[in-house]
Design brief:
It is built from 10 helices and 9 strands. By secondary structure, it is an alpha/beta fold. The chain has a 9-stranded mixed sheet with strand order 1-4-5-3-2-6-7-8-9, sandwiched between helices. Helix 3 crosses helix 4 (111-122).
Amino acid sequence: MTVLHVDHYEYAGKGGGGTPLLLIHGWGMHGGMWGGVAEKLAQNFHVMAVDLPGHGYSVKNERRKGQWVRGNGQDLAFSLNLEPLTFALDAIVDELSAQFDVPLNVCGWSLGGQVALRWALRHPQQVERLVLVSSTPCFVRLDDWKYALSVEILEEFAANLQQNYALTLKRFLSLQMRGSEHEREILAVLRDGLFSRGEPDLTALQSGLEILRGSDLRGALAEVKQATLVLAGERDTLIPQQASQFLASRTPKGRLAMIKGAAHAPFLSHPAEFVEHVVNFLSE
């Protein structure tokens, strides 16, 4: 593969204009999971996809911190390599922020939505617009927050990682796609792509679950300055509709787009609708 230095940005697609658009994947995944929507979005924007610490190409490129790597397709992945003990939400956000000296749009899926939201709060001058896909300000059910997973489910995933992390990730994929239109077809695509950039680091997976379990950004939503699009799947079993509605309504410039028939990965099950929503929002 060709290594591109951080001061020489290249983007997916040909001739895309406008503000750069960075795509941030979910737990246990990598930048390649965005599939064909990255190329479609690149017709309108400069699109980049990041591989978070311990995921995708970043596992193989631990000596290439802060560099772009090109995969087999046209997608670009930016590999972040943090020390295992610094795989925390603010550490990831600060590492991402340090790579850019111009404002950009940020689109985060699931755990990536937590990263994107925290980035917008921590470095507001850097994020122009925010797209939060199948995400929530708080993943874990609390006494005053019922629109979330029980902590026992995340603890079960954490325990199972130690026994068989590959099987645990595949089970998580099944949970994400449950109830979606085209469920079997999209699940097969996800499973085929899961390890296409290598196996994720176990410590990073465990730390990612800690972020999901411990992060609660509900109280900070009123401070989000950016226009925010909350994109949700109508049939998402991980993120209830009430959580998406809360996220959109408590963000001062937030709006909600619900994709019918979609579960936790609407960009894969309903790519045309997903792209239309994102393009219209970012082009305003």
